[in-house]
Specification:
Number of helices of chain A: 0
Distance between the termini of chain A: 37 Å
Strand order of the largest sheet of chain A: 1-9-8-3-4
Strand content of chain A: 35-45%
Structural class of chain B: mainly beta
Oligomer: heterodimer
Shape of chain A: globular
Largest sheet of chain A: 5 strands, mixed
Order of helices and strands of chain B: EEEEEEEEEEE
Helix content of chain A: under 10%
Radius of gyration of chain A: 13 Å
Strand content of chain B: over 45%
Helix content of chain B: under 10%
């Protein structure tokens, strides 16, 4: 699996946008970029994934750099329920093993 | 559509006892994965199963751990003769299918928190 680097923690004010960065400089051409999050005492929850183009869904947006060496998960309006650890994962083509690193712990301030 | 279900949510065992963890995948999903999360660590892949088949158990400890996904019923992760180091959260995930270059999304259950006394 390609290695990913994320900040250990970030803070955001409630109802403000949050940009969570992820560096993956060793990404290969067929690697999808996945984001999961884990709320306290819960299982991981799928957020979004993409390959080359920016992606949007009801939870978030994923902005992928043109060279694909980095990506950013965007939460458009942070709520208290978004406080979680966010993981950027590149499983590798044909791989089903998700490797969870330390992720970014997002705190949302009321 | 019910999500992935795991039971029990909490399990306490004494050293040497057996632990059985159950996972019912989402409706229509035939692929099951088990992960373990030790305290203060990220999730680690253990095993990948399809109905009646173990596809990849490369993340499973060689001894005392086994997994199955029978034709009928939930997937079972079994830990024999538990030790304190087995204390962890065990998560099950399921996906609809697997193939091609786009990895299928894995949906996770709430986990079973095993405490070995």
């Amino acid at each position: 699996d390609a290695k990913t680097t994320q900040p250990n923690s970030m803070e955001s004010n409630e109802e403000e946008p949050v940009h969570l960065p992820c560096n993956h400089s060793t990404i290969s051409g067929t690697d999808y970029i996945h984001w999961y999050r884990q709320l306290p005492s819960q299982g991981p929850e799928y957020v979004i994934h993409g390959l080359t183009s920016n992606v949007n869904n009801r939870m978030a947006s994923l902005a992928i750099a043109e060279d694909r060496k980095s990506s950013t998960l965007i939460l458009h309006r942070a709520t208290l329920r978004d406080a979680a650890v966010y993981y950027c994962i590149l499983p590798g083509a044909g791989s089903y093993q998700l490797t969870f690193g330390k992720g970014t712990k997002l705190s949302v301030i009321p | 559509n019910a999500g992935v279900m795991q039971n029990p949510r909490h399990l306490v065992r004494r050293r040497g006892q057996e632990a059985r963890l159950r996972c019912s995948p989402m409706k229509g999903h035939s692929h099951v994965y088990w992960y373990r999360q030790l305290p203060e660590e990220g999730l680690k892949f253990m095993v990948y199963l399809q109905k009646e088949n173990i596809i990849d158990e490369s993340g499973m400890p060689k001894e005392r751990f086994s997994a199955e996904f029978p034709k009928e019923g939930p997937s079972i992760l079994r830990i024999q003769q538990v030790v304190r180091g087995d204390s962890a959260a065990y998560f099950c995930a399921s996906s609809q299918n697997w193939g091609g270059t786009e990895q299928e999304t894995q949906y996770f259950g709430p986990g079973t928190r095993l405490l070995v006394l």
